[in-house]
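Could you join me in thinking about how sequence relates to backbone shape in a protein? Label the sequence line and the structure token line clearly, so we can match residues to local backbone shapes. Once you have written the record down, we can walk along the chain together.
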Amino acid sequence: MGYYPIFVEMAARRVLLVGGGDVAHEKIGKLVDADAEVTVLATAVSPPVREYIEDGRARLLQRDYRSGDVHGFEMIMIAADDGAVNQQIADEARAAGIWVNAADDVANCDFILPAMVRRGNIAIATSTAGASPALARWLRERMEDFLTDEVVVLGDLVSEVRQVARLRDHECAAGCELVRTPPPLLCTVCPNRIPADRWQEVIENERRALLNAAEELSRVQDRDGELKDSLLGLLHRGEYQRSKQRMVEALGVDRPLLARATP
């Protein structure tokens, strides 16, 4: 098998979740959080799964699976413990061109789910190609250690600074014969193009600055006792705009455009 890692846009995507137990509970929360339209198909559902249904975040078909139930859905998630049922659903889904995932049943999967940690706008997914869920969990826990408060703030910062840079790219691209669209991609000889290595340098420098700020805030907490706001909140409130301005200046996106390259 050759797995290709992707993040899929799930908003408004129709998903059939077969099963209503603990495994279904593990899956339904992430699906709902991604704004998928989830239908649970099960003869019985656990209290945590039922909460999603009663809150209107998912709908319930309370019965056994019937042939043809996959139709009308864009993705099938199987959280049952019956290999024969898994295979029947997977066969029907594949025949209809619908992606299917069966928990702990790689043979009946078109895709597998990585172990994922998310904070703010940053999501890190790890996978062992289905070979070792225990190792995937171990990796996920190490990624949780990596996603510290300053990294989360950095994710927001880079997103905002990139928007500023993209506006400048659009301005430079307007009327330029060398631009590649869509979207405006400045030509390789453009004097206004920010090299990828420069982005990396600025991001790393700002990460260190935010780390220093976080360490200083932690020392203040240790000295003065518990603060009313979280460390993440304090970074956002006290360092965010200064950090953004430093990045903007370091990348030069606050300066006037240089003359465009000529054909």
